[in-house]
Amino acid sequence: MDSPIFTSTQMRETEEAAFAHGVEVEVLMDQAGAGVARAIAKFFPQPGKCIVFAGKGHNAGDALVAAECLRQRGWKIEVRLAFKESDCSELMRKKLDALRHASAEIPDKTAQGNGDIGITLVELWTEVGDYLRAEQDAVAAEAYLGSASRTIILDGLLGLGAKPPLRDPVRKACRHINELREKKNAYVVAADLPTGLDGDSGETDPDCVVADLTVTIGFAKHGLLADNALDLVGRIEVVSLPDLKPGKATPSELLATANSLRPLLPRRKFRAYKNQFGHVGVVAGSKGFIGAALMTAQGALRAGVGLVEIFVPEEIYSIVAASAPQESMVKPIQTYRDLLDEKIDIWALGPGLGKSRAAEILNLIKDAEQPMVVDADGLNVLSEKIDVLKHCRGPRLLTPHPGEMKRLFDSDKMSRAETVRNFCGQFPVTLLLKGSRTIVCERGRPLSYNSTGNPGMASGGMGDVLTGVCAGLIGQGLSLYDGARVGAWVCGRAAEMSIFQSSQSEESLLSRDVLNHLGNAFNELHNSPL
User: Fold this and answer.
1) How far apart are the C-alpha atoms of 7 and 2, rounded to whole Å?
2) DSSP state, 86?
3) How many helices (H) and strands (E) does the chain have?
4) Cα–Cα distance for residue pair 447/452, rounded to 1 Å
5) Each residue's pLDDT tens digit, 429-459
6) DSSP letter (8 states) at residue 160
7) Max Cα-Cα span within the chain
């Protein structure tokens, strides 16, 4: 099922339609909270400590249900209330009571973090509506965070209906969350959206919560995808609620999720053989840049393509042949013009090519009848004669990073979404704009945002791997649009797994780590519920 991106009005209408069919608010809250807990456990499978910052409405109720689900998994929970319980909604108080009664040892008033109990309640207000004494709170935070290798903060302060500016006591709670993230390296998870962010426009309060992961409920919201919200939203995970139906209208924007992409990769038939899964021709590499060709080839192989051939200039043939994956073939070439006669299903062109043979490369981009993924130096060559894209004999997928996109297209002050739409409006291509939230655009198709990835991918070689993966998927029969969407998702998820399920960090992450975890990412995609 596609995962459309909703406005707050569409979200309310969807919820009201569910209520009209007899669905109860508490049922949706329980489903949402359980989904938030599953998302946290997906990234942190080992129980730890979770500090819930709770407001007074349904968003807080979602967070409290999540906290109870985490408690049942062995997590230790601390709840920090921004308001008096008497000021909170009835359903929120019900979920707080359920959490409180889950442990007989939970105190009623301000308790310091105690490693011997499972739940702790801390009230952040006093009779004058301010925080507890700063020194007392600092001691509590230090004691609580100091014993955990990684503590999760769950932002359940405000939900979709709230808009900036923030007011106390919520504003001070947001400041406190951000301080714990900055000074204590706490990992912040926002329930539905970070407090202080407008769910429609993406406008933010100066004290908006900075989330590392936003677990959005039902459907992604437009404000989460705004360019200025990228650093505040972090990774996006969607909790699908079976009682919320997206409607029959074709959406203009999608969020690529495991659930929505899974149908694109059907199970292979048992009698399958290699010629049924495509033949990728890699045109990459030059003196000093042979690694680009090798990573592109490995990406295609790891994506499941049947055959990979690497075509390189004669002067680097011996080096590439000695270093190439054993599963690939390497062929020397005198001129790129000769490749027009090769029997290839799809080309992966550009990584590490250089521009010394720009005319030959441009000719291949224009005249090859097969689909082609164009990246790196292929894009740099194109940028000097961009109108060639109007006359290509085969379909083209372009995969620029923001710098390459600027060389291809003068977008001035356009947003990323406006840039890709305008570009695809002028040129009949599929465009994958890499970055913190990769976008895939094709004329006549919904704009698709990727949901996976992390800042550790901002390093050399990641684009080469993605080029190979996309080519490998397209070689197996996916359209350029779907191959780009799946390719971006699995590469981003493999990068996440390299950090959360392995020993890498955002600093140490390498493209080879992504290659090594592509199998895990594909397995997760295949096992995702439809």
Assistant:
1) 16
2) G
3) 17, 19
4) 16
5) 999 999 989 999 999 999 999 999 999 999 9
6) T
7) 81
Q: What angle do the packed helices 25-43 and 90-101 form, to 10 degrees? A: 50
Length of the chain, in residues: 530
Which pTM does this prediction carry? Answer: 0.93
Asked whether the bond before 351 is cis by omega within 30 degrees of 0, the reply is no
Separation of alpha carbons 412 and 101, rounded Å: 57
Q: Are 468 and 282 in contact (CB under 8 A)?
A: yes
pLDDT (tens digit per residue) in 242-278: 999 988 888 999 999 999 999 999 999 999 999 999 9
Residues 6+ apart with CB under 8 A from 29: 58, 61, 62, 65, 91, 95
Residue type, 232: L
CB neighbour class for 523 (10 Å; exposed up to 12, middle 13-18, buried from 19): exposed
Other CB atoms within a 10 A radius of the CB of residue 267 amount to 7
CA torsion sign for 201, 483, 499, 218 is positive
Residue with tokens 């706490």: 186
Distance, in Å, from the CA atom of 125 to the CA atom of 140, rounded to the nearest integer, reads: 15
Closest Cα partner for 172 from 63, 284, 55, 61? 55
Cα-based angle 27, 31, 33 (whole degrees, multiple of 5): 115
How far from each other are the two terminal CA atoms of the chain, in whole angstroms?
7
Q: Which two tokens stand for residue 133?
A: 């004494």
